[in-house]
Structure formats: structure tokens, C-alpha cells
Specification:
- The structure holds 2 protein chains of 2 kinds.
- By secondary structure, chain A is mainly α.
- Chain A is 74% helix and 2% strand.
- Chain B is α+β, with helices and mostly antiparallel strands.
- Helix content of chain B is 25%, strand content 34%.
- In chain B, helix 2 runs parallel beside helix 4.
- Classes of the chains: A mainly alpha, B alpha+beta.
- The interface between A and B is medium-sized, with 21 and 26 residues.
């Protein structure tokens, strides 16, 4: 994909594949001039950022409630898990109708809401597993030492589940960034995402491989950077461990 | 310092009864021990006093104030957990400073108190380390330090010595006693080890399966156990138990076992009024068995099964039918397997086989 983005159309489609070729920037120029790539990138970044900002805090508190207080006695937790099992495509028509009536079509809010909703079961499940690993003794020691329940959570449990939060954020980010279905159905031009932009390279004239590769490469860069940043926190957090 | 009371407290976890209708009164400034095997309910009781567990029934009082609905941070108690529960992401200093900082103490004060406490516990050199860099004994002292930095009304300790190796445990027991003696708080100490309780506490509550069996000073528990469980639990080596039948014959009363017959005419009336059947259990402590190599008046003959030379003591195992009775003998005693020797019981206890209740009241001593 990366290599292909620098090849001419002719070079791309040659069989056997050409390893040595004269690179060209035409594909990239084409992408920037003829598609909404900048808008798409900005929108996707906004959506991804919002989804992470919403999913992580809500999932974290939900996971804590489930593990420590057993809210809903297992039933509620199962219910949330089943949301994950639900095929999104089966729900897309009702969602479309709802958002249309709310006037939220082609608005960034719709993909944000839907992505948050569909990411939460997974992040809750992931975080719940981590929180269960943290001994309750630690929180109780903090409470006996003078902390409220929330302070115990904030000062003791939260730092210890930081790597889990980072992992959950990465998963949510990747799922949201790659998400095509909701973006395709619910956005048009204002709230266009990178996935839709890429889809735009499937034209009536055929698939524009060169520009498509260039676009795909450009769209992967932000994810790369994100993972590089977060990876440092994941590694640092994991080396703390729980003391037995 | 404060008094702590539990009145008719019960707690269940699902189908398991952790604590049943428990009433205990702990005096102000007392070193009180909760003694019992696993599952007795000791940890549950401590947690209820601390406030991290609520009783299903009954009330808990600290200084005569009901605290059932008071959150832990307002109860002015500290707790040392069995697992120490040190915050893994904070240094030893920060662990110990935590309760003080939560009280909004100025940092200079905090530093002073933490350093002083660390000095007492010999962990001053460890203040900048993380818990994972400490040994078991060091972690235990940090846990204790965190509980000591404040002067709480009540200090709760949940089996603090259990996770240490045997040698360290013996060392720490002495140090603990000294440190706890200097603390001016009411101490509630849970342990399955009767030796710890007996050496450190003013009074002990013996628990089994959530029920209180006896609550008394160590001496009383040793001299006057009220039931079978307490008698067998306190004292090392443990009390010997022999099943017997109480019979009366020719105006005399005997305790009849397969191996021997023990005359007990003087107590006949007292025993008869207390037992529910003629099946009783004779209890005698190893240290209350007098041994002689030659026949003497009033002694019974038993055969030596094995002798354990502990040095300086010797535990002689004597065969009594199917059972083995252990006796403590002086260092000079010498006997081989199969030798017949003569024993006399200097003090006995009798337990009703059905109820487990002690009948004699701990007053039966033969000169």
C-alpha cells in the first residue's frame, strides 16, 4: 500500500509486481486536489477524540460499579454485552430514521453517539477484568485511612488501571477510525470521514488504485502516531504491576 | 482509646453464616484478641468494626456511640490487613503519609511523624522504596507503620504475622508486643494462632464458625475452659481427650475407658447433676500428667507408645486403648517403646459428649 502510493497506475497493475520503479507524487497531489481528504481527516480525528473522551470515563465508572457493587446482579452486565453481539447493520435503518428525525444527519454527532454506544460493551468488559485484578483491600485501606469511596478510586485504583485505560482507548480509537458503515449511511459532505473519502476512490471509471493507496497511507498515519504515544504509557503502566 | 461493643451482630454471605448473634464488649485501652480457626468470622468482625462491611443484624458501638451507618473515614480506626494492602504505586513514605495527608496535616508535621514512626519500626532506610522492592517482614512493618502514624481510637490487626516465615514470626511476636504496648489505643487482634493470643492479649474471644465460645483472660481460658473446643484449642501441646463412661458401682463412681478405670467418687454428685448422658469425655493436659516408673498409690498403668525428645522437654506418648495420651516428662526421663509406666492425672476436665460443655468448672485438681 505504501509502495503503491508512489507508483503510477501502470506500474501498480503490472504483473509480476514491480519492485523497482520511478516514484511519483502524482497520486498524493491528486488526493489533495480532488478529494475531501483534509476535511475527512479533521472530522475523523474529531469523532475519534470525542468517542475516546466519552467512552473511557463512562466505561471506567460502569466497570467499577459492576465489579465492586455488582449493579444489576449480572443481568445488566449481560445485557450490555449483548449489545456487542448485535450486528450493527441490522440496526442501521432505525438509527437512520431516528437521526433524520432529530435532524442529525450529516452531523458529527451521529457517528460520535453511535460509535460510543457500540464501543462501550467492549471497553467495559476489558476494564472490568482489570479492576477485578485490583485487590479490594487496597481501596479499603484507603477508606480506612480517610478517603471517601471516590477518592479511594481516584487515588488508588485509577493509577493502577491506567494501562488498561490506555489499551481500551487504543481499541476504541481503532474501531472508530476504521468504522465505515455508520459513516457511510449517516454522513454526506459536512461530516465526511476518512473511510468515506477512501470509498470515493471507487468511481464509475474504475478503482483509482494509485490515489487510493496514497489516501490509505495518509489515513493510517494518525493511528500510527496515536499508538506510538500511548504505547509508552502501556509499557510504563504494565511494569508497575500489583504487589503480592 | 475507645471501647468497642458488638451487640447481637450477625452477618451472612449468601448461604454462609460468617457471624452469628455475636455480643462482645471490648474495654477502652485493652489488647483484645479474636482467636479461632479459618472461617471463624474474625476478619468479618474486624471489617465490621472498621466500617467496610455492614452487619445484617445488630449494632456496633465505638465509645458507646452506634456506628453502623458511619463511613470508615469517620470512625477513627486504623487497620493492618493480612495482605498488608500497601499501595503498590506509592513509596513507603507515601504509604505511611497517606492517612496523615488525608487529615490535611501540614507537610512538615507529616514528615516528622512518618520519620519517627519509621524509626521505631526500623524502616527508616526504606522510606523511598516501593512495596515491590521490600521483603515480607519489611512490608509488614510498613503496614503496621501506616496504622500507627495516627493515634486512632481503635487499631485493628488482621493476622499480621501469618504471612511471615516461622522464625520471623517468633521474632516479630516479641517486637509486636512491645510496640503495641506503647500504643495508647484499643487493639483488636485477629489470629488463628493461640500462642500469639495468649502471649499478647489481655482478653481473648474464642470463635468457631461465627459463634463466640468463650471470652476471658488467657489464664481463665487455660484454667477454666467452658467447652470442649476451647479446651482443645488453648494450650500447647494440646489437651488429651479420652472417651469414657460414667458408672457407679458399690457406692463408688468411676470413669470407665477401654484401657483403665479412674475413680472419681468425690465428684459423683456434681457430675451427675450436670451431665445429659453417661457418655463423657475426660480431658487432661500433658503438663498435668505425673509419670512414675514404679507403681504408686492411685496411679494407672499405661504403655509407652513413643517418646519425642524435644529437648529440654520430652513428650511421652502413652497408649490408652486405641488412643494416644501425650504427657510432658522431665528431661531425665528415659523410657523405651513398650515399657509400662505409671501415671496420675493431677488435674482433669470433664466434658459432656453431646453438648461439649465442661462439667467440673475447672476445679478438679488432685494433689
Amino acid at each position: 500500500m505504501f509502495l503503491a502510493s508512489f507508483k503510477t497506475d501502470l506500474d501498480i497493475l503490472t504483473i509480476p509486481p514491480k519492485i523497482f520503479f520511478e516514484p511519483t507524487f502524482d497520486n498524493y497531489i491528486f488526493v489533495f486536489e480532488c478529494s475531501y481528504i483534509i476535511k475527512g481527516l479533521i472530522n475523523s480525528l474529531i469523532i475519534m477524540g470525542s468517542v475516546i473522551a466519552l467512552t473511557i470515563p463512562i466505561s471506567m465508572l460502569a466497570a467499577y460499579s459492576f465489579t465492586r457493587f455488582n449493579v444489576g446482579g449480572g443481568q445488566f452486565q449481560f445485557y450490555i454485552l449483548t449489545v456487542r453481539m448485535f450486528p450493527p447493520i441490522a440496526a442501521i435503518v432505525p438509527f437512520f430514521v431516528v437521526f433524520r428525525d432529530l435532524g442529525l444527519l450529516d452531523n458529527l454527532l451521529s457517528p460520535i453517539i453511535l460509535n460510543t454506544l457500540f464501543n462501550m460493551p467492549f471497553t467495559i468488559w476489558l476494564l472490568a477484568g482489570f479492576i477485578r485484578e485490583i485487590q479490594q483491600d487496597l481501596e479499603e485501606a484507603a477508606m480506612i485511612g480517610g478517603a471517601t469511596r471516590f477518592e479511594a478510586f481516584y487515588e488508588i485504583t485509577l493509577p493502577l488501571i491506567a494501562p488498561a485505560l490506555a489499551v481500551a482507548a487504543v481499541f476504541a480509537a481503532i474501531f472508530t477510525w476504521n468504522e465505515f458503515l455508520f459513516a457511510f449511511i449517516l454522513t454526506r459532505s459536512e461530516a465526511i470521514t476518512v473511510t468515506r473519502v477512501m470509498a470515493g476512490f471507487y468511481t464509475e471509471r474504475g478503482i483509482l488504485w494509485g490515489p487510493l493507496s496514497a489516501c490509505a497511507t495518509l489515513c493510517t498515519v494518525p493511528m500510527f502516531i496515536l499508538v506510538l504515544i500511548i504505547q509508552k504509557y502501556i509499557v510504563r503502566g504494565l511494569t508497575f504491576g500489583a504487589v503480592r | 482509646m475507645a471501647s468497642v461493643s458488638l451487640k447481637e451482630v450477625s452477618k451472612k454471605f449468601g448461604n454462609i453464616t460468617a457471624v452469628e448473634n455475636l455480643t462482645i464488649d471490648i474495654k477502652d485501652g485493652e489488647f483484645f484478641s479474636l482467636l479461632g480457626p479459618s472461617g471463624a468470622g474474625k476478619t468479618t468482625i474486624l471489617r465490621m468494626i472498621a466500617g467496610v462491611e455492614k452487619p445484617d443484624k445488630g449494632s456496633i458501638y465505638i465509645d458507646d456511640v452506634p456506628v453502623n451507618d458511619v463511613p470508615p473515614k469517620e470512625r477513627d480506626v486504623t487497620m493492618v490487613f493480612q495482605s498488608y494492602a500497601l499501595f503498590p504505586h506509592k513509596t513507603v513514605y507515601e504509604n505511611m503519609a497517606y492517612p496523615l495527608r488525608k487529615r490535611n496535616m501540614p507537610e512538615t508535621e507529616v514528615k516528622k511523624i512518618v520519620h519517627e514512626t519509621a524509626e521505631i519500626l526500623h524502616i527508616r532506610h526504606l522510606l523511598s522504596r516501593l512495596p515491590k522492592q521490600l521483603s515480607g517482614g519489611e512490608r509488614q512493618r510498613v503496614g503496621l507503620g501506616r496504622a500507627m502514624v495516627r493515634q486512632p481510637k481503635v487499631c485493628l490487626l488482621d493476622e499480621p504475622l501469618t504471612n511471615l516465615d516461622a522464625k520471623l514470626r517468633v521474632e516479630m511476636r516479641g517486637e509486636f508486643k512491645k510496640i503495641c504496648g506503647n500504643l495508647k489505643t484499643t487493639i483488636v487482634y485477629a489470629t488463628p494462632d493461640q500462642l500469639e493470643s495468649v502471649t499478647m492479649a489481655h482478653r481473648i474471644a474464642v470463635l468457631d464458625k461465627g459463634k463466640l465460645l468463650q471470652c476471658d483472660s488467657p489464664d481463665e481460658l487455660y484454667n477454666r475452659p467452658k467447652n470442649f473446643f476451647v479446651a482443645g484449642f488453648i494450650g500447647s501441646p494440646a489437651m488429651n481427650f479420652v472417651d469414657c463412661t460414667f458408672i457407679e458401682e458399690d457406692k463408688k463412681a468411676y470413669l470407665d475407658t477401654a484401657e483403665f478405670r479412674y475413680e472419681i467418687t468425690d465428684l459423683a454428685e456434681k457430675i451427675k447433676s450436670r451431665i445429659t448422658s453417661s457418655e463423657v469425655i475426660l480431658g487432661v493436659r500433658p503438663e498435668h500428667i505425673k509419670i512414675s516408673k514404679s507403681i504408686e498409690e492411685g496411679y494407672i498403668q499405661l504403655e509407652v507408645f513413643v517418646s519425642e525428645r524435644l529437648r529440654p522437654q520430652i513428650i511421652v506418648d502413652l497408649k490408652a486403648g486405641e488412643k494416644v495420651i501425650k504427657a510432658l516428662a522431665p528431661a531425665e526421663f528415659d523410657a523405651d517403646i513398650g515399657d509400662k509406666i505409671w501415671v496420675k492425672f493431677e488435674k482433669i476436665f470433664l466434658f459432656d459428649k453431646r453438648t461439649g460443655e465442661e462439667i467440673t468448672g475447672g476445679d478438679v485438681a488432685f494433689g
